[in-house]
Design goal:
Elements lengths: L11 E3 L4 H27 L5 E2 L2 H9 L3 E6 L3 E6 L4 H4 L15 E5 L6 H8 L3 E3 L6 H26 L16 E3 L13 H15 L1 H7 L6 E5 L6 H12 L2 E6 L10 H16 L2 E6 L2 H4 L12 H15 L7 E7 L17 E4 L5 H11 L11 H7 L5 H17 L7 H13 L10 H20 L5 E6 L10 E5 L9 H22 L7 H16 L17 H8 L9 H28 L1 H14 L1 E3 H8 L4
Parallel strand pairs: 2-5, 3-6, 8-11, 8-12, 9-10, 10-11
Antiparallel strand pairs: 1-7, 3-4, 4-5, 7-9, 13-14, 13-15
Helix pairs in contact: 1-5, 6-7, 6-8, 9-11, 12-13, 12-14, 14-15, 16-17, 16-21, 17-18, 17-20, 18-20
This protein binds adenosine-5'-diphosphate, magnesium ion and zinc ion (ZN).
């Protein structure tokens, strides 16, 4: 899903993109052309070069009248050779290849020889004076060309591989700052995160009328950090704030600041703030700030992160030196607040945090409404049902579902999108694309059928579990071979011990069913086991639910701690013996639960067989059929 949905026709400029850059490359071409002309004329104007011979040899040839038409310059003497063979000119030497059959011209370095002219006169050899064609100026051009040409090539190559386009514009590389005078996004486009919206309301009021606030002297936060999982709409929300306030939106991604040249990132930060000052009131938005603001201590490679640190330092400096009164608010987004440098979170910087959480059932419905607004829906579509079926989904996933459903309907040449398309879209998003064509062998299919039945029966039989909505063994994606979809009847923020234990049992149910039936283990349960272990660990270490250890918390940094800037990489605060007990408790929890669900399935072996058999035949069971099997009526 595209992060920044930009509607066409919206005014949006990439500053410094066209004008200067275009001119710049013209200058390059001009310089290159000029150099080429100078060098080539210089080379052409060079007199024909002759064979170089020693002066003594030249004198000898003069005496034998073998030379003529001499040009005597202050530095050397050139001329024609008459009736000479190579053998004669360079006795004993190899005849140079690629030369004419006979040597025609020679050249020699001049030696102080006052008698030469008289000798030439007496022998009747023609001679004339000449000036050195290789003037000092030519020399300069020649040598500078030798340096400039590689330099130009180097710059050219760099321009190709580096986003920092122009060497001379490095500090001004604005190409990546997206400046939008109007984002066109408003709070109507962002559904479901009402708390976050409420918190941002104040910022909007301020941006609308900065004077009103500053005259009262109220404290306006400088930086606000949007924290939340990927796809929850942080970027969208930031744009909506700008849209609601009707101010310009300057955005840049954290990774854009990190360049191969040292100092570029810092220059960009400076530039960004300068632009913001000009455009105030406006919003500076730094997306994915974690790329830039990783904790400095958390970077283990020495020397490898200097550039990032410079950039981060510059950002801190700019933020500190920035006056909110000018009407600029700095927003940033991250899904990994725990790795941010504490310096970024200090008062006067990003000291305000707005949590953008996964939407609850109502929120999901609202988001679906936004994304199906322009779609033609059949009357059977109930967004509330889709919302109930997609717990844990974020806005981006839901946007995906709507999109996918529309595509499916189009492919099937339907007039509108019906529930069937939504169902399939959900399936696809949940477990990756359906691969109906993937052949699984019958043995594998049987194992998966029992495995999924194990999950389903455990979920249907244990207290405090979500209702089983559908069981499927259609192969999807790479890892998940099948899935059992449980629908929570309501959204949960709190879980009791017995609910957690039931959840654990459901996760282990797949593996237990496999072992019960085949007396053998398979790798199909790896993901279940991972999640089960995670829950067991949380029960013992985080929720303080272990009998042996009591209500103690081990090894957790709470969000409150973190948001207060007290985050520290956690060190173990308990003894070796306690560590051992923790491990034992986790193991015991898993083992006991596994045995419990194993016995349960043993008791319900008939049901297990029936479900697995039906599943093998139909691949998907849901609705009444599923209910009747799970309630043991059949
Ligand atoms: P984030 O920045 O938190 O990773 P984005 O803002 O990039 O998430 O969201 C990606 C896309 O998902 C958005 O462009 C939008 O289409 C959709 N989306 C996410 N959250 C919401 C929401 N709360 N309401 C409507 N659409 C949403
Ligand atoms: Mg984003
Ligand atoms: Zn499983």
């Amino acid at each position: 899903m595209a992060n920044n949905k930009r509607k066409p026709g919206k005014k949006e400029t990439k500053l410094g993109e066209t004008g200067p850059k275009f001119k710049f490359s013209l200058i390059y071409i001009g310089i290159a052309l000029l150099l080429y002309i100078i060098i080539s004329t210089f080379l052409i104007s060079q007199p024909q070069k002759g064979e170089e011979i020693p002066y003594s040899r030249f004198k000898e040839l003069v005496a034998r009248k073998k030379v003529d038409n001499l040009v005597i310059t202050p530095a050397n003497i050139r001329g024609e050779l008459k009736g000479m063979s190579w053998e004669e000119l360079l006795p004993g030497k190899k005849i140079p290849s690629g030369k004419p059959a006979k040597p025609e011209r020679f050249e020699t370095i001049r030696v102080e020889d006052t008698g030469l002219v008289n000798q030439l006169e007496s022998l009747g050899i023609e001679y004339s004076g000449g000036i050195e064609k290789k003037s000092a100026w030519g020399e300069v051009i020649f040598w500078s060309a030798i340096f400039i040409v590689p330099l130009l090539i180097w710059i050219f190559v760099l321009r190709k591989i580096s986003p920092a386009r122009d060497m001379m514009q490095i500090g001004k590389s604005k190409a990546k700052v997206y400046v939008e005078s109007k984002t066109g996004t408003t709070f109507v486009d962002v559904a479901g995160c009402d708390e976050a919206k409420e918190e941002l309301e104040e910022v909007i009021d301020f941006l609308k009328e900065p004077q009103r606030f500053t005259s009262i002297g109220g404290h306006i936060p400088k930086g606000i950090l949007l924290v939340g999982p990927p796809g929850t709409g942080k970027t969208l929300l930031a744009r909506a704030v700008a849209g609601e306030a009707g101010v310009a939106f300057l955005s840049m991604s954290g990774s854009d600041f990190i360049e191969m040249f040292v100092g570029v990132g810092a220059a960009r930060v400076r530039d960004l703030f300068q632009q913001a000052e000009k455009l105030a009131p406006c919003i500076i938005f730094i997306d994915e700030i974690d790329a830039l603001g990783k904790a400095r201590a958390a970077a283990p490679i020495p020397g490898g992160h200097e550039e990032r640190e410079h950039t981060l330092q510059q950002l801190l400096v700019e933020m500190d030196g920035f006056d909110t009164k000018k009407g600029v608010i700095i927003l940033a987004a991250t899904n990994r607040p725990e790795i941010l440098d504490p310096a970024l979170l200090r008062p006067g910087r990003f000291d305000r945090h707005v949590v953008v959480d996964r939407p609850d059932i109502k929120g999901r419905e609202a988001i679906l409404k936004v994304h199906t607004k322009s779609m033609k829906l059949e009357p059977d579509v109930e967004l509330s049902v889709i919302a109930a079926r997609t717990p844990g989904f974020v806005g981006a996933d839901l946007a995906n579902i709507a999109n996918e459903a529309a595509l499916l309907a189009a492919r099937r040449r339907k007039r509108g999108v019906s529930m069937a398309e939504f169902e399939e879209a959900i399936d696809r998003i949940i477990a990756g694309l359906e691969k109906r064509s993937r052949v699984i062998n019958p043995k594998e299919k049987k194992i998966v059928a029992y495995h999924e039945s194990g999950h389903a029966i455990a979920a249907a039989s244990l207290p405090g579990t979500d209702k089983v909505h559908r069981v499927s063994i259609i192969p999807r994606g790479v890892s998940a071979l099948g899935y059992t979809l449980q629908l929570p009847t309501e959204d949960r923020y709190l879980m009791t011990y017995s609910e957690l234990m039931s959840k654990l049992a459901v996760l282990l149910g797949g593996r237990a069913a496999e072992y019960l039936v085949f007396k053998e283990l398979s790798t199909g349960a790896a993901n279940d086991l991972e999640r089960a272990t995670d829950i067991a660990e949380k029960i013992v270490k985080e929720y303080g639910m272990s009998e042996k250890l009591g209500p103690l918390v081990f090894d957790v940094t709470s969000r409150q701690q973190f948001l207060a800037g007290l985050y520290q990489p956690s060190f173990r605060k308990y003894s070796e013996r306690t560590a051992q007990i923790i491990d034992e408790e986790i193991q015991k929890l898993i083992k006991d639960t596994y045995e419990r669900v194993y016995r349960l399935l043993e008791e319900k072996r008939d049901m297990l067989e029936r479900l697995a058999k039906t599943l093998s035949d139909k691949e998907v069971i849901e609705g009444e059929e599923l209910e009747s099997i799970l309630s043991g009526k059949v």
